Amino acid sequence: MIPTIIIACITFVLVILSILFFPHLKIGKIKLDTYWIISLLGAIILLACSYAPIKQVGEQLISNNAINPLKILVLFFSMTLISVFLDELGLFRYLASVASKHAKGNQLTLFLILYLLTSVLTVFTSNDIVILTLTPFICFFAKRSKISPVPYLVAEFTAANTWSLMFVIGNPTNIYLATSSGITFIDYFKVMAVPTLVAGIVELGLLLLLFHKQLKEPLQSNDIIYPIEDKVPVIVGLSILGTCLVFLIISSYINLEMWLISLVCAGALLVFMLIYSCFKKSNFEHVVHTSKRLPYQLIPFFISMFIIVVALNEQGIASKIAELLGNNNSTWVYGYSSFLACNLINNIPMSILYTNIANSLEGVAYTKAIYASIIGSNIGAFLTPIGALAGIMFTGLVNENNVRFTFIDFIKYGVVISIPVITAALGMSELFI
Fold first, then answer.
1. Domain that holds residue 310
2. Which of 11, 30, 166, 423 is the most exposed place for a label (fewest CB within 10 A)?
3. Neighbouring C-beta atoms of residue 192, cutoff 10 Å
4. Which residues of the chain have pLDDT under 50?
5. For the chain, how many structural domains are there in total?
6. Pick from 419, 390, 313: which is nearest to 357 by CA?
């Protein structure tokens, strides 16, 4: 048990240190994120030392059950591909520019429109995609308009990681925790719809209190609209996304797994874009750019953390933590503890670990613990940048755009906003389980 704990803890600590101090590794012209390399090395050591049984890991990777990590990755990447395609076609940039135009020189109006846009896009795509696409736009727009980007960046990041609670597809952690517990798309929505709405309202109120002075400052009117150059693939892409969501909602009634539905829809869009590119005699530019933007680093990171958690489970660590957390007040205990655990080991390994920890519970207590852990995995993302991959991507994008937003700044806003928001979400979830 002790060697497994030591290797796992060293891996988690090094992942955190890499995010803070040496996030990238350059080999020639190739730039690699270090966090997934470290997690992969930790998993390889555990496999080599037989602390993570290769046979059991292999069986779980090819098993035909809900917690198969490969199915979860397929679901996430399929939805990501559809969303990135739409962004490559100019949809997100167009919507953001329309939002800025309708602000008519009023920062408060712009702030509210961008918050609403971020929330809606997150609900129907995912938090990671919204952060990847809107963060550079906000930095560029703020610089052009000579205003501080901080209120908009904080609002975008917190909104993306709050409204991602609405649908099971909003975050990879939602997918893992929900599918591992047999929670369907529609059952998930029935429980999480109102808690997400209430959490979003509380969050918006806090944001307005924090930034009301800055939002009173004048804003240079910006009438630039970034048009959608080719509307046909955008219409097709939105149609496929809508169809995918409909089938995900009824998936439990038609006995089709969500990963398969999303894969077919993503495949249909990819085939359409290839045929359409041939018809237009283009050079497959959108297909190539989309493929380059997919978050491939999530694959080794997710699987590595899965292996590390398998090793911890083999040594009885999950059951020990379950004993420590107890059987009472599972919503609050699992909600707050998962919220903090995200910022110690990241929300992906936390979700994998908490899936096993919650297995010690039964009935309503188990269901409450799963939903509470889902809430913790989302809201925990904006306590510190370590809490989620979204935080890692966000800080990287902000730095690339020369915006001063330090680790301390992140925590300062994160503490003020996240604690009331998670409390509101957990409290409301109690009423719907």
1. 2-432
2. 30
3. 27
4. none
5. 1
6. 313
